[in-house]
Amino acid sequence: MLAPVALSLLFNAYALGQNGYANTFYSAAVRSMLGSLHNFLFVSFDPGGLITVDKPPLALWLQAISARLFGFTPLALLLPEALAGALTVLLVYLALRGVVGRFGALAGALALAPFPAFVAVSRDNLPDPLMLLLLSGACALTLRACLHGRLGALLSAALLVGLAFNTKTLAAYVVLPALALAYLLSAPLPLGRRLLQLLAAGLLLAAASLAWLSFVDLTPAHERPYVGGSRSNSELGLTFDYNGFGRIDGQEGGPGQIPYRAGAATLSLAHAPAKPPKLDIYRALDSGHLVAIRSEPGAAGPLRLFDSELGGQDGWLLAPALIALIALALAWRGGARQQRAARSRGRRAALIIFGGWFLTEALILSAAKGIVHPYYTSALGPPTAALIGMGAALARERAAERTGWLALALASALTLAVQGYLLARADYLPWLIAPVALMAAILCLLALPGLRAPLWGPLSGRPRAPVPLGALLLTLLIAPAAYAATTWLAPVQGTFPAAGPHAAAGPGGVGLEGEDRRIYPRLARYIALHAAHERFALLTVSSVAAAPLILMGIHAAALGGYSGVDRALDGRQLAWLVAHDEARYVLLGGPYSERGGNGASKAVLAACRLLPQSAWGGPALTPYSFTLYDCSGKAAALAAA
User: Fold this and answer.
1) What is the side-by-side strand order in the sheet with 556-558?
2) For 245, which DSSP code?
3) Looking at residues 156-160, what average pLDDT do you find?
4) How far apart are CA 113 and CA 9, in angstroms?
5) Cβ atoms of 87 and 133 closer than 8 Å
6) How far apart are CA 208 and CA 156, in angstroms?
7) How far is 233 from 588, CA to CA, in rounded Å?
C-alpha cells in the first residue's frame, strides 16, 4: 500500500518549488481571498472584489487555508494538489482491496501513480486533483454501500460528489450514472428500498451541490463580485453554459470560436486571421526548442484520445484498461446466479462503477466540440487504473488457463505497440521500447501455464504466485513513468499543464517571461507611485494580465474577467469608480484583448488619455501591445461614451 503512495508523492512533489505560482490566475485569486472574508466567500479574483474566478470555491478555499497556515508561498498553494494526487492513489487501493484482493489493489494503485496527465495536473494548482480525490472517495463509498446496503455509505458518497461539484461543477457529475447503476443493480436490498435510498442520496447531492451556488445567486449583485465567465452574472448560468454544456457543444474561445474584435486595444489588426495561429514561442520542457502551447485536441472521434495532443497524456494504458473491461465483463457475467455472494456482488459493482466512469469520461472527451484541454484526460486516470487493477487480479486467478494467458499476452503486446508508437511520435527515448518489450516477453513466457509450474509452482499452498504478473505490470509502467517524469525538467505550464518533452513549460515565479519580465516591474513601480490609494490601482482587460501584478502586490483587477469579455463593467460603472477616486489607470492590450473587451474598455478608448509608452516604461506600440490610459477627470466622458 505504501509503495504506490510513495511513488505518487515522488512524481507529484519532486522539484515542485520550481513551478512558482504555476497557474497565476488561481494564485492571484488566493492572494485576494486572503484579504477579506468577503473575497474568500465569493472567491474574488481581485483584491477589490470586482469579479470572481470562473470556478466553484472548494479547491481555492483549500489553498487559501494552506496559505493562511503556512504563509503565501508557491509551495503552500501547490502541495495540497500534490497530496490530493497521492491520496487518490491510496483511495484506488482501498476501493479495490475488498473486492479483488491486495494484488489487484496494488496493481491498480501503481498504474495510477505515473499516469502522465494525472501527474502533470497534480503538480499544478488547478481544481482537478481535489475533484478526482473526492470522486475516487465517492466510488469507494458507493462500492461499500453496494456490498452491505448501507444508506450511510451511499449518502456519504453523494456528499462527496456534491463537494466535487463545488470544485469543478458538472465535470464531477460524469461519474454519477455509474454510481447510481451500480447501487441499483448490486445492493443487497429490495428494489423499492434501493430506489428510495437513491432518491435520498439524490436529494442530498442536490443540496450539497447547490448550497454555495444559491448563496451567490441570492446575494444582490451590488453586494458581491460579478460572476466571472458568465453572461448573466449568475453562478447557475456559469455552471450550465461556460463550465457545462458549452464545453461539449462548443463556445466562444473554443476550437474555431476565437473572435477578433476591436475595443480593447489601442491598435487593431487590419486583417484578422480565420483562427489564431499556433506560434512556437514557449520553451519546451526539455529546453531544447520552442513550441506552441498544446491547449486543444484534434477533431472529435474515437481515436482522439490517442492523437498528438492527448495521446501522450492518457494513451499509455487505455488499451489494457479496455481489454480488462471486456475480459472482466465476460468472466463475471455469471455473477447474476450468485446474487447473494458478497464477493461476486462487489466485483460486479466495481466493474460497473469504474468501467462506467471510464466509458463515460472517454466518450465525452472523444466527442466534445468545445474546449478540451489535454489535462482534462487526468480524469481518466483513476478509472483506468482501477480497471487495470481488476484485470490484474483476474489474470492472477486465471493464470493456469491458456485462454487467460492468451488474453494477458494480447493485452501486453497491444500495450507495448501503443507505447512504442507514442515514444516514437514524441521522439523521446525511442530505444526504450525494445528492452521493455523483451522483458515483457520473458515475463509472459514465465507466466505461461505449462512453463510456469516448475519455477513458480505453489508457494505456501497458494497455486497462483503473483511474481511474474506483478513484474509484467511494472514493466508496462516503465514507458509512462519515463514520460511523466518529464514534468520534472522545467516549471509546469500553469494554464495548460502537460507531460512530455515537447509540452510547453511555464516561466515559474509570478508567471512572467520574455519582454514581460521587464515591462511588469516598470509598470508596477509606476502604479505604486501614482495610484497608491485607489481601490483598483490598475484595471486591465483580462485576468491573465492582472494576475502577475496582484502577485507582485498591486491592487489590480480585470475589466472583463479571464477572457476580457465579461460584462463586469460598462462605461457608466467605470465612470462612477473614477468619480469616487476608486479607479484611475487602465491597461489595455495584452492577453485576450483581440476578443474586443467590454463596454468599459471601449469607453476608455473613447474618453481617457493615452500615456506615452516612455512615461511608464511600456513596449513599442504594436497591435495588442500594452498601453496605459489615465482616466482622471474623465468620469463624464466615460459615462457618455
Assistant:
1) 556-558, 538-540, 585-588, 627-630, 609-610
2) I
3) 98
4) 8
5) yes
6) 11
7) 23
Q: In this predicted structure, what is the pLDDT of residue 455?
A: 42
Stated pTM of the model: 0.93
Could you read off the pLDDT of 406-427 as tens digits, one per residue?
Answer: 888 889 999 999 999 999 999 9
Q: Is the pLDDT of residue 462 over 60?
A: no
d(CA 403, CA 396): 12
Strand partners for 282: 291
pLDDT at residue 454, as a whole number? 44
CB 345 within 8 A of CB 185: no
Using alpha carbons only, what angle is made at residue 44 by residues 119 and 581, rounded to the nearest 5 degrees?
140
- Report the distance separating Cα 44 and Cα 50, nearest Å: 7
Q: Let me know: does 511 contact 24? Beta carbons within 8 Å.
A: yes
Helix (H) or strand (E) holding 240: helix 235-240
For residue range 45-101, list pLDDT tens digits in order. Answer: 999 999 999 999 999 999 999 999 999 999 999 999 999 999 999 999 999 998 999
pLDDT band at residue 299 using 50, 70 and 90 as cut-offs: confident
Q: Is 577 left (phi over 0), alpha (psi -120 to 50) or beta?
A: alpha
Q: Grid coordinates standing for 103? A: 494484488
Residues 6+ apart with CB under 8 A from 299: none
- Please state the three-class secondary structure of 510-537 as a single string: CCCCCCHHHHHHHHHHHHHHHCCCCCEC
Tell me how far CA of residue 574 lies from CA of 75, 568, 632, in angstroms: 37, 10, 11
| Alpha-carbon span 588 to 535, nearest angstrom | 19
- Contacts of 240-245 with CB under 8 Å at 24 or more apart are 240/170, 242/54, 243/54, 243/55, 243/168, 243/169, 243/170, 243/171, 244/169, 244/170
State the Cα–Cα distance between residues 415 and 290, nearest whole angstrom: 31
Can you tell me which residue has the cell 494477458?
A: 408
**346 with 310: CB under 8 angstroms?**
no
Q: Which of 213-227, 271-285, 362-376, 572-586 has the lowest mean pLDDT?
A: 271-285
- Give whole-number Cα distances, 188 to 156, 181, 185, 635, in Å: 18, 14, 9, 70
Tell me which long-range contacts 92-95 makes (C-beta under 8 A, separation of at least 24).
92/136, 92/382, 92/385, 92/386, 92/389, 93/1, 93/4, 93/5, 94/140, 95/136, 95/139, 95/140, 95/143, 95/350, 95/386
Residues 153 and 131 sit within 8 Å (Cβ to Cβ): no
- Residue 26 has which C-alpha cell? 488561481
339, 322, 331, 330: which is closest to 146 by C-alpha? Answer: 339
Mean pLDDT of 343-364: 93
Q: What is the DSSP letter of 506?
A: P
The residues, ordered by sequence, that sit 6+ positions from 585 with a Cβ below 8 Å of its Cβ are: 527, 530, 531, 537, 538, 539, 628, 629, 630, 631
Q: Which residues contact 337 (CB under 8 A, 6 or more apart)?
A: none
**Residue 203 pLDDT more than 50?**
yes
User: Rounded to the nearest 10 degrees, what angle do helices 599-607 and 571-579 cross at?
Assistant: 60
Domain segments of the chain as ranges: 2-214+293-488, 516-640
Q: Are strands 627-630 and 538-540 parallel, antiparallel or unpaired?
A: unpaired
DSSP 590-637: STTGGG---HHHHHHHHHSEEPPHHHHTPPP--TT--EEEE-TT-HHH
